[in-house]
């Protein structure tokens, strides 16, 4: 006949061991559920036991693994050739690495979200999450291992969850952080990039290259499958938690990150301040804004969508000069100290400083809800 164990008779060390065993069991339940869930059946090589997030935060966005196909062998055309099908007002992600400049039209990225590419021997991942309006470029070289990225079909806080094909670790697109698997807790290096109109790219980089529509896939390039999504009164898709109340959820913001601290500048301030000279966390910065690019998330045809600002961020310190900038009546940017003219890419195009370039500040343009969901401690800039 079995007798019940009287816990009072057990050694304290045995009781502690039992408590730890039960605790570990309950902690492991979410991982076991994830591994057995039909949503994770396509991920036998992903180490779900190594996770830095609560797996219940992962939501299916609808498409399966690689249902939104990345572009892994990108083809490029000249600016002159791209003009035949790419409207000058359409938005492009601009990447310049050591003088090699490429433009990645959002009319293509909106259907693929990731381009695995290489510029000047630098392996890069150019990414765009339409639901967060987040365009971010990463270095794919991680401690000597070149990673190739694809889409998981999942979202977290409405943001794209990527994966690398080498370890099948999952990555948060908006932060560049590994969240599940071998690389959980590891951060990718972010590379400076801008979103501007194709026209601005063509003027600054007439010899630059443009991502071709010849992707190997049949898509309605030029059409926006998220029609009306960026309405300021809209509700974010699959955002579980309440949006930060300090700003409208769908307002675009430009964020800057300096030495681990963050500040966001709502696009609404650019009506009164097209140029913002500011200082944040010890660094003097300037934001150039220009109403020049069509929204990729407005009308069905991107080329016919409303015009919104492009915003770029740079350090104001140039060699021994601390520059102050202004936008004059001709619509161009000038520094007050020398009267040199500058473009959206921080390049001096005329005047005493012609040929000089400002240094980028880590920044991005996102919907307010998206950035603040991952960085709730961010300061909000307000005009004086």
Mind explaining what this structure looks like?
With 384 residues, the protein is mainly β. The chain folds into three domains: 11-41; 60-211, no CATH class; 252-293 and 306-380, Rieske Iron-sulfur Protein (3-layer Sandwich), CATH 2.102.10. The chain is built from five helices and 29 strands. The chain has helices at 12-36, 79-82, 106-112, 198-204, 368-374, and strands at 58-60, 76-78, 91-97, 100-105, 114-119, 122-129, 134-139, 141-142, 145-146, 149-156, 159-164, 170-172, 177-180, 190-191, 194-197, 209-211, 252-258, 261-266, 275-280, 283-294, 307-315, 317-318, 321-322, 325-327, 333-335, 341-342, 348-350, 363-367, 379-380. The strands form eight sheets. A five-stranded antiparallel β-sheet has the order 1-10-11-12-13, with no helix packed on it. A five-stranded mixed β-sheet has the order 2-16-4-3-15. The longest helix has 25 residues, at 12-36. It is globular and about 60 Å long. 41% of the residues are buried. The model is unreliable at 1-5 and 18-32 (pLDDT under 50).
């Amino acid at each position: 006949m079995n007798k019940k164990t009287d816990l009072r008779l057990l050694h304290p060390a045995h009781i502690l061991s039992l408590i730890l065993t039960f605790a570990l069991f309950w902690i492991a339940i979410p991982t076991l559920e994830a591994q057995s869930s039909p949503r994770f059946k396509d991920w036998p090589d992903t180490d779900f036991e190594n996770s830095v997030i609560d797996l219940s935060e992962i939501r299916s966005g609808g498409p399966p693994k690689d249902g939104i196909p990345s572009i892994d062998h990108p083809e490029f055309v000249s600016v002159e050739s791209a003009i035949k099908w790419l409207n000058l007002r359409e938005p492009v992600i601009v990447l310049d690495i050591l003088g090699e400049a490429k433009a990645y039209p959002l009319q293509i990225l909106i259907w693929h979200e990731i381009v695995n590419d290489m510029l000047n021997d630098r392996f890069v991942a150019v990414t765009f999450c339409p639901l967060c309006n987040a365009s971010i470029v990463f270095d794919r070289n991680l401690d000597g291992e070149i990673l190739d990225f694809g889409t998981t079909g999942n979202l977290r806080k409405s943001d794209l969850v990527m994966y690398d094909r080498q370890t099948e670790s999952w990555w948060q697109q908006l932060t560049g952080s590994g969240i599940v698997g071998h690389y959980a807790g590891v951060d990718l290096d972010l590379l400076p990039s801008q979103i501007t109109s194709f026209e601005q790219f063509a003027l600054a980089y007439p010899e630059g290259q443009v991502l071709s529509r010849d992707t190997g896939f049949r898509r309605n390039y030029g059409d926006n499958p998220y029609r009306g999504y960026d309405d300021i009164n809209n509700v974010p898709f699959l955002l579980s938690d309440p949006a930060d109340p300090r700003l409208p959820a769908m307002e675009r913001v430009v964020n800057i990150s300096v030495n681990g601290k963050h500040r966001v500048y709502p696009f609404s301030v650019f009506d009164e301040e097209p140029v913002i000279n500011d200082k944040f966390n010890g660094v003097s910065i300037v934001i150039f804004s220009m109403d020049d690019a069509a929204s990729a998330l407005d009308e069905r045809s991107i080329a016919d969508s409303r015009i919104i600002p492009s915003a770029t961020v740079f350090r104001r310190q140039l060699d021994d000069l601390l520059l102050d900038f202004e936008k004059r009546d001709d619509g161009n940017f000038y520094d007050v100290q020398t009267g040199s003219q500058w473009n959206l890419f921080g390049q001096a195009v005329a005047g005493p400083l012609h040929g000089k370039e400002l240094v980028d500040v880590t920044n991005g343009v996102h919907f307010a809800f998206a950035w603040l969901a991952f960085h709730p401690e961010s300061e909000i800039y307000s005009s004086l």
